[in-house]
Amino acid sequence: MSDATLTLQEAADDLGVHYMTAYRYVRLGLLPAQKLGGVWRVDRADLEQFRSGNGNAPVRGGRPAPWAERLEARLLAGDARGAWGVVEAALAAGSELDEIYLDVLTPAMVSIGNRWSAGEIDIGLEHRATGIAMRLVGRLGPRFVRRGRSRGAVVLATPAGEKHALSVAVLADLLRLEGWEVSDLGADTPAESLGLAAAHPEVVAVGISVTHPQHHDACRESCAAVRRHAPGVLIVAGGQGVDSRETAIALGAHEHAASAKEMVRVLDRLPGTLDLESAGDAAAGA
Questions:
Q1: Residue 9's Cα: distance from chain center in Å?
Q2: Secondary element (H or E) of residue 238
Q3: Is the pTM of this model over 0.85?
Q4: 258 and 202 in one domain?
Q5: Dist. CA 151–CA 164, nearest whole Å
Q6: End-to-end CA distance of the chain
Q7: Which residues of 184-214 are buried (b: 16+ CB within 10 A; e: fewer)?
Q8: Where residue 109 sits, what CATH number does that domain have?
Q9: Model confidence over 153-200: pLDDT tens digits?
């Protein structure tokens, strides 16, 4: 092994802590480490950074913890247990459920996606990270359900051919936290299936997530199907592939939401303040 690395036991001895304490630092994403040949190895540079209180080290002096960076490191390492440990640590430190999604998980996954786009990581690592992120959402999901009277039912989906379901799953939980009943149809939903789901009498809105413009035609078909089967239901299009309200309306939607927070604001305007008929005329003329 290189002199630039230490075993985790050596790192623990250097820090003056028990091995399990050093191991916990790794699992929480506080101390970067790699498992090589069944042995955890720590770069000396990372150990010194940890000791100095910078970067991924324990936060000192009231600085906000870099939870997103810590989670990103565990996701890229394929460390599902460590990723959950970061989430638990953030919750224990006072983060709210919506903050876990908006300020920790989402920035971590956006960074991973950007690194893949830049050619810094292989698509396999991105897929593995997404799989772990989906399991995190699965564990957190039941905590988002709010008791009390439902504000109405919302259907969420991605159009046919669109494979990215994580953003829809995150949005579904955030809407549940706001009191909405959500049906998450997930990725690659056929247009007619979405239209039929929207026709349920309790449904007041449909959200369609698009991550790339190549799925615009499929989104347009989905919007048309919802209009046929449920003409009084609000259609909101968003995601990285829908960059403006004008684009959303051109695809057949009534409104645009660039983020989960914007989707919440759009739904807060229901009922009565969104002119679906006017938006439908605009879409027909686009």
A1: 35
A2: strand 234-238
A3: no
A4: yes
A5: 27
A6: 63
A7: bbebbbbbeebbbbbbeeebbbbbbbbbeee
A8: 1.10.1240.10
A9: 999 999 999 999 999 999 999 999 999 999 999 999 999 999 999 999
The CA distance from 31 to 191, in Å, is 46
Task: Look up residue 175 and give its two tokens.
Answer: 């809407």
- What is the token pair recorded at 90? 């953030």
Same domain, 281 and 154: yes
Residue 80 pLDDT > 60, yes or no?
Answer: yes
Please give the residue range of the domain that contains residue 153. Answer: 147-285
Strand residues in 128-191 grouped as ranges (E):
153-157, 181-184
Closest alpha carbon to 126 in 211, 190, 209: 211
Q: Count Cβ atoms below 10 Å from residue 44 Cβ, excluding itself.
A: 15
Residues 238 and 203 reside in one and the same domain: yes
HSE, side-chain direction, 13 A CA sphere, residue 161: 13
Q: Which of 127, 144, 161 is the last residue of a domain?
A: 144
Asked whether residue 152 falls in the same domain as residue 265, the answer is yes
| Nearest alpha-carbon partner for 90 in 78, 76, 74 | 74
Q: What is the largest CA-CA distance in the chain?
A: 71
Rounded Cα gap, residues 29 and 86, in angstroms: 7
User: What domain count does the chain have?
Assistant: 3
Counting every residue written for the chain, the total comes to: 286
With tokens 């046919």, the residue in question is: 160
Residues 6+ apart with CB under 8 A from 264: 174, 175, 178
Cβ within 8 Å of residue 285, ≥6 positions away: none
Q: Which residue has the tokens 């299936």?
A: 193
pLDDT for 53 equals 61
pLDDT, tens digit, 9 for 90 and up, residues 210-220 = 999 999 999 99
Contact 170, 106 (CB under 8 A): yes
